[in-house]
């Protein structure tokens, strides 16, 4: 490109798309329920996009140069890329029409139908967002199949806003894909790079024809060592892909964004291509220290504002980074966010009940946009131009250091006084014997992961309680009635180890945050986790302790209803950290030990109340695993230690369970072993128990419950299917190591699915027990 169009001095990589009050979630769920038409959902979506553009312009992003991203999605941006390149799996081919996938077809690919499984869902880098994994085989036909990005660009332009279309880049798209079932052993989706590029070339040409001056291609795969494509191969793919794309005859200027971490060796490779701009993550990634050849012709989009956490930035320090970057020799340095802002809530202004001091420390998406705009002004006009804002930001950062509750000597002293004993439970074989005697369980004990369906009635009761329409007593009675129903159902079905069903929890992390000191929670701080599902991550701002028992009364009540064992149920320290916004002023490991100690108190109280089995969930253990291999050991050390700290205070005959999901477990087998839990339940049904191979190979000595029911799908498994999974499991590992359970909690499912599924699991278990 001889004349590179202007890139804005400040811009953001992306913005929340679910809507300030979850408008998109409500619209699309109503559509799935058959209560609204596709046209109505489209209208809601168009309105949301318009409100986003208006809001971003009000906050100071320009509309005549492409500062505002066009990055909407109905469900998932990786699925959107699948729709654009036409890579819809064969089992859904009938849903593709001339116009590509309509909203109903798109929803079906995401959610499955009958025996057609949906695309697999997996963690998006080290976040609590989940994307739909593309399935690519040697035969996949790529063709330009959705003009949505073009239409959404045109929609904004018609209203006078020049946006920057955002789409997953070709290298990341293929690097994150999995090979279609039945592909040859040596096939990898990245082998299809040459074939997918013409589709991107066509998309670029259509965007240019519509008037787009810049396009943003997202390439986060380049910052991670955890994807299957070897590093060399990935870098070669960058050279090939961006050689072809930059050579396209008609195209917008190309901005390659690399959020979530350090580009490392990929930076010089990218700089040597002819792309016009590169976005680097300067929150997670390092500041390059010397000039990078090729950068002199490029715009560097400096991701200095954290898209992944909610602390107000130290603008002075950020400006200093930007000033240093100007010495790297790039054609221009502009201000950006480290990642899209869709990992943070819309605005702190919609939190009337949040403590004012705490609020002054925070920046949600809208406040971050302001930070970007201010820094851009400082960079172009000079420090003096933003003098006031720099002072204000510094004040906020300083106020955090000395505010009450942030540093509490009694909490610190307790952590500092811990000895190595506090992290060790002693010999497993001894524990195993003591527990077998106390618990008296049959072979292949059956249990569930904790939650039972969160019915509309439960949610209504809680909403009424929050609004003050139900008293605490009335709410408690309703939850107790629900617990009693769930216990009775489990007795009827014949499960061996029961749960109380978790009706009282709004969320498995938020609930604990509400009951611990050092945390605050939001009212409207929704963040998309997958599809239409959202969470309100809690804010961990101070030293953590437990003012009073949290779950003990519920567990005792539930135990009083049955002579079977009632499992105590807690969320573990690593997961509480992973799904909250965590203070950034001390190492995560220190914070994790504070949470670990608070949970240890709870676990010891459950034990004292007569609960013999206690489960401590750690589904996010894999999630926080650093993207670069060199950082793994340090992470695994502090994460495993905090779990052990929480669980090592119990007697030998108290059985500790843990639960993990959403993982490729192979990568963290060592950590699973390190947790030293007596029983570990893991998601396994969709991958047909592949994990058992890893477990057998590792010689893992403790018990495991590989999931036999995929709870992410509305599908009810057949008894034969479950029997087969269990028969496989019995062949793979010793019977006295095996438990029988679903993949995960049942809270997102309905009783129509849950009851028959559990009945079949019990029937299958009886069949397999009879063969032992
Ligand atoms: N934090 C977190 N991360 C996680 C998981 C998780 O469970 N928690 N699980 C994994 C998968 N991710 C998930 C994320 C969210 C949900 C989920 O079910 N979210 C619910 C909201 C849960 C919640 O906060 N519920 C609240 C508020 C519910 C609500 O929307 N209430 C209505 C009113 C209800 C009524 O009147 O009927 C409202 O506020 O408008 C409650 O129960 O109290 C949803 O999006 O629908 C499931 C899985 C990985 N990451
Ligand atoms: C995402 S892991 C969920 C574990 C929790 N005990 C539940 O059953 O919902
Ligand atoms: Zn789970």
UniProtKB/TrEMBL annotation:
InterPro entries, A to Z: Cbl-indep_Met_Synth_N, Cobalamin-indep_Met_synthase, Met_Synth_C/arc, UROD/MetE-like_sf
Residue stretches making up the Cobalamin-independent methionine synthase MetE C-terminal/archaeal domain: 444-765
CDD domains per record: CIMS_C_terminal_like, CIMS_N_terminal_like
Cofactor binding note: Binds 1 zinc ion per subunit. Binds 2 Zn(2+) ions per subunit.
Catalytic activity reported: 5-methyltetrahydropteroyltri-L-glutamate + L-homocysteine = tetrahydropteroyltri-L-glutamate + L-methionine
Any one GO MF annotation of this record: 5-methyltetrahydropteroyltriglutamate-homocysteine S-methyltransferase activity
Residues the record lists as binding L-methionine: 449-451, 502, 617
UniProt enzyme class: transferase
SUPFAM superfamilies assigned to the protein according to its UniProt record, in alphabetical order: UROD/MetE-like (SSF51726)
Amino-acid positions noted as binding Zn(2+) in the UniProt annotation, renumbered to this chain: 659, 661, 683, 744
Binding site for Zn(2+) 1: 659, 661, 683, 744
Function recorded in the entry: Catalyzes the transfer of a methyl group from 5-methyltetrahydrofolate to homocysteine resulting in methionine formation.
Protein name: 5-methyltetrahydropteroyltriglutamate--homocysteine methyltransferase
Classification lineage: Bacteria, Bacillati, Actinomycetota, Actinomycetes, Micrococcales
């Amino acid at each position: 490109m001889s004349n590179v169009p202007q890139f804005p001095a400040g811009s953001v990589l992306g913005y929340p798309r679910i809507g300030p009050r979850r408008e998109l979630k409500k619209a699309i769920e109503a559509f799935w329920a058959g209560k609204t038409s596709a046209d109505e959902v489209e209208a809601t979506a168009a309105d949301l996009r318009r409100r986003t553009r208006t809001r971003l312009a009000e906050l100071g992003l320009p509309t005549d140069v492409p500062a505002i991203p066009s990055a909407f999605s109905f469900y998932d941006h990786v699925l959107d890329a699948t729709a654009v390149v036409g890579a819809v799996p064969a089992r859904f081919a009938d849903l593709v029409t001339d116009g590509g996938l309509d909203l109903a077809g798109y929803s079906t690919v995401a959610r499955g139908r009958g025996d057609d499984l949906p695309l697999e869902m997996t963690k998006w880098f080290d976040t609590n967002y989940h994307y739909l994994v593309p399935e690519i085989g040697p035969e996949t036909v790529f063709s330009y199949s959705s003009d949505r990005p073009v239409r959404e660009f045109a929609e904004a332009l018609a209203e006078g806003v020049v946006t920057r279309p955002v789409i997953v880049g070709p290298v990341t798209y293929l690097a994150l894909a999995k090979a279609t079932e039945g592909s040859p052993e040596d096939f990898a989706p990245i082998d299809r790079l040459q074939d997918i590029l013409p589709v991107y070339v066509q998309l670029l040409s259509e965007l240019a024809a519509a008037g787009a001056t810049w396009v943003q291609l997202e390439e986060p795969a380049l910052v991670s060592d955890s994807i299957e494509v070897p590093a060399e191969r990935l870098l070669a793919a960058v050279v090939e892909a961006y050689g072809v794309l930059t050579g396209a005859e008609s195209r917008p200027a190309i901005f390659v964004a690399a959020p979530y971490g350090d580009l490392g060796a990929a930076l010089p490779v990218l700089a040597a291509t002819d792309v016009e701009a590169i976005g680097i993550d300067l929150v997670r990634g390092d500041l390059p220290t010397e000039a990078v050849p090729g950068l002199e012709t490029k715009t560097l989009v400096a991701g200095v504002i954290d898209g992944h956490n909610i602390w107000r930035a130290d603008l002075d320090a950020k400006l200093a980074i930007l000033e240093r970057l100007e010495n790297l020799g790039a054609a221009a340095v502009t201000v950006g966010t480290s990642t899209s802002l869709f990992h943070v809530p819309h605005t702190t202004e919609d939190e009337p009940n949040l403590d004012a001091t705490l609020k002054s420390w925070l920046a949600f998406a809208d406040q971050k946009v302001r930070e970007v705009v201010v820094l851009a002004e400082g960079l172009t006009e000079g420090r003096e131009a933003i003098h006031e804002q720099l002072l204000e930001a510094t004040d906020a950062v300083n106020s955090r250091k000395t505010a009450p509750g942030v540093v509490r000597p009694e909490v610190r002293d307790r952590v500092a006084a811990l000895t190595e004993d506090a992290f060790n439970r002693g010999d497993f074989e001894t524990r195993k014997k003591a527990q077998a005697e106390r618990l008296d369980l049959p072979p292949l004990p059956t249990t569930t992961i904790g939650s039972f369906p969160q019915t509309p009635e439960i949610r209504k009761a809680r909403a009424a309680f929050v609004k003050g329409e139900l008293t605490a007593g009335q709410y408690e009675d309703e939850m107790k009635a629900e617990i009693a129903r769930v216990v009775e159902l489990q007795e009827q079905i014949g499960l061996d180890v029961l749960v109380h069903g978790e009706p009282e929890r709004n969320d498995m992390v938020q609930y604990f945050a509400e009951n611990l000191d050092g945390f605050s929670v939001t009212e409207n701080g929704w963040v998309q986790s997958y599809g239409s599902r959202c969470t309100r991550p809690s804010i961990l701002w101070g030293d953590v302790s437990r003012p009073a028992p949290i779950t003990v009364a519920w567990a005792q009540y539930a135990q009083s209803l049955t002579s079977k064992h009632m499992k105590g149920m807690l969320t573990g320290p690593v997961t509480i950290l992973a799904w909250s916004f965590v203070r950034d002023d001390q190492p995560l490991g220190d914070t994790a030990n504070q949470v670990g100690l608070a949970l240890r108190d709870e676990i010891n109280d459950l034990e004292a109340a007569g609960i013999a089995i206690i489960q401590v969930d750690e589904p996010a253990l894999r999630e926080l695993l650093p993207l670069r291999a060199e950082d793994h050991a340090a992470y695994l050390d502090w994460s495993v230690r905090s779990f052990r700290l929480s669980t090592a205070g119990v007697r030998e005959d108290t059985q500790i369970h843990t639960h993990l999901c959403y993982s490729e477990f192979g990568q963290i087998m060592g950590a699973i072993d390190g947790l030293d839990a007596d029983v570990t339940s893991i998601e396994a049904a969709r991958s047909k128990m592949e994990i058992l191979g890893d477990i057998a190979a590792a010689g893992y000595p403790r018990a495991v419950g590989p999931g036999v029911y995929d709870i992410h799908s509305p599908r009810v498994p057949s008894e034969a299917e479950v029997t087969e999974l269990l028969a496989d499991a019995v062949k793979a590992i010793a019977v006295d190591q095996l438990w029988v359970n679903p993949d995960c909690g049942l809270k997102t499912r309905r009783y129509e699915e849950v009851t028959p599924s559990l009945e079949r699991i019990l029937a299958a278990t009886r069949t397999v027990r009879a063969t032992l």
